[in-house]
Amino acid sequence: MSTDQITAKRVSTDNTSANNISTNHTKTKHISVKRYLPDSSTETFWQEYDLPVDDSTSLLDALNHIKEQLDSTLSYRWSCRMAICGSCGVMVNGIPKLGCKTFLRDYEGDIRIEPLAHFPVQRDLVVDMAIFLEHLAAVKPYLIDDNPVKPYDPNAPETYRQTPEQLERYKQFANCINCGLCYSACPQFGLNQEFLGPAALTLAHRYNLDSRDSGKKERMAELNRHDGVWSCTFVGFCSKVCPKNVDPAAAVNQGKVEAAKHTLIALFKG
Amino acid sequence: MNKIAMNKPSMGQNSAQHKQAFDEPLWWGLFSAGGVCFAILLPAVILFIAVLLPLGLLPAEELSYERASSLLFSVPGFLFVGAVVCLPLFHAAHRLRHGMFDISVGNDALNKKLMYGSAALLSLLALGVVVAGMLS
Q1: pTM exceeding 0.90
Q2: What is the model's pLDDT at position A15?
Q3: B93: domain range?
Q4: In the structure, how many helices (H) and strands (E) does chain B have?
Q5: CATH for B67
Q6: How is domain A130-269 classified at the architecture level of CATH?
Q7: For A190, which residue in chain B has the nearest alpha carbon?
Q8: Which end of chain A is least crowded, N or C, by CB within 10 Å?
Q9: β-strands A112-114, A95-98: how paired?
Q10: How do the domains of chain A map onto residue ranges?
Q11: Which candidate from B5, B8, B22 shows the least CB-CB separation from A263?
Q12: Where is the composition biased (Polar residues) (chain A) (predicted)?
């Protein structure tokens, strides 16, 4: 943008009446954060903060404001600010949300921030996601190719080919950012941590549906366990909280059909 | 990743954990079939037998003893009982089993035997009555 353009923009902003720019209306909001500081106490406690917000203040902005201006001891994870990295998941009034995708303008009254449910808390809003990563690794969420990579020949380069129809089959399930919100939403994962859980089962299904993949057999052995697809009771809250509209509930239940087919085939083949 | 996995005591019992759940597809299949029957057939059955007939909106002889027993004690009657009694029983058993797990009542291995066992017993009883009627 040239200097002229910037100047022009400033002038036009100055000319617009203040009523049209609603984002400048700051007011004070009150939020409560569940604190856990293992160095000083084994007990959790609620801490209250009052902070200035406007219509564009996200929860992550608010946490950053607390950290920078009010209380530098607050711990939380964040990175990209744009719902891609999946680090800033927290519970907002008991519902798992991404901090960067949640705006304080949508909340009247109490705003209670807690660490993601069903995960061990390390400190304040930081949780230990090791069990989720284990479940993810168990379903081999990557392309498994029967024909290992051939030497690259520049004269006849070989690439994977896929038609738009083949892409469409798994595309929706490929949008997972591994934020773990679905694990906090899943009551079955809350009861049984060995349950592979929504995201892992969805990614397994995503690779099973991929025309370039031939690892379905290896994954089905994981899916067709009691702690695989069969622990899901189709509550569906995972799909409601997913910030990328992946619809894990659909993937898991399509996985049940696949697991049932897998069992039938195994019975007949012996 | 290996490092994390090795630190976990639970990952030691791999062989037990990787046991395939060969029974689950069966329970889930019966649950799904039962759900369809529950949703589609049962409302019609209730409408005819529990609403229209008692209100006298259908001729009383529609389900007279002779007509009802000849309808029930036949192959279509056998299928009717399977679809309206047995499959919904397994549907309910599956829901009860998972509901009990959700509120942490009993243990799942025992609940499974109790729930599916009683569904199977009641189904056998219902189908047995039909078969006995067909033979008599």
Answers
A1: no
A2: 44
A3: 26-135
A4: 7, 0
A5: 1.20.1300.10
A6: Orthogonal Bundle (1.10)
A7: B102
A8: C
A9: unpaired
A10: 23-127, 130-269
A11: B22
A12: 13-23
Mutate which: B24, B27, B32, B100, vs A, most A CBs within 10 A: B24
Give, in degrees to the nearest 5, the angle at Cα A128 between A123 and A131. 165
Assess if residue B3 is contained within a domain.
no
Residue A160: what residue type?
A: Y
Contact A230 B4 (CB under 8 A): no
In this prediction, the answer to ipTM > 0.85 reads no
Question: Taking Cα atoms as reference points, which of A125, A102, A111 lies closest to residue A51?
Answer: A111
Is there a domain that residue B19 lies in? Answer: no
Interface contact B17-A194, CB threshold 8 A? yes
Q: How many independent structural domains does chain B possess?
A: 1
Whether A134 contacts chain B with CB within 8 A? yes
Band of residue A270 on the pLDDT scale cut at 50, 70, 90:
low
CATH superfamily membership of A23-127: Beta-grasp domain (3.10.20.30)
Whether B120 is in a domain gets the answer yes
| Chain A residue numbers touching B25 (CB-CB < 8 A) | 224, 256, 259-260, 263-264
Residue-averaged pLDDT of chain B: 87
Q: Rounded to an integer, what distance in angstroms lies between the CA atom of residue A221 and that of residue A231?
A: 15
* Chain B CB within 8 Å of residue A141 CB: no
Kindly state the helix (H) or strand (E) to which residue B21 belongs, with its residue range: none
Q: Does residue B124 sit within a domain?
A: yes
Q: What pLDDT is recorded for position B22?
A: 86
Nearest beta carbon to residue A133 from set B1, B17, B24: B1
pLDDT tens-digit profile of A20-51?
A: 445 567 889 999 999 999 999 999 999 999 99
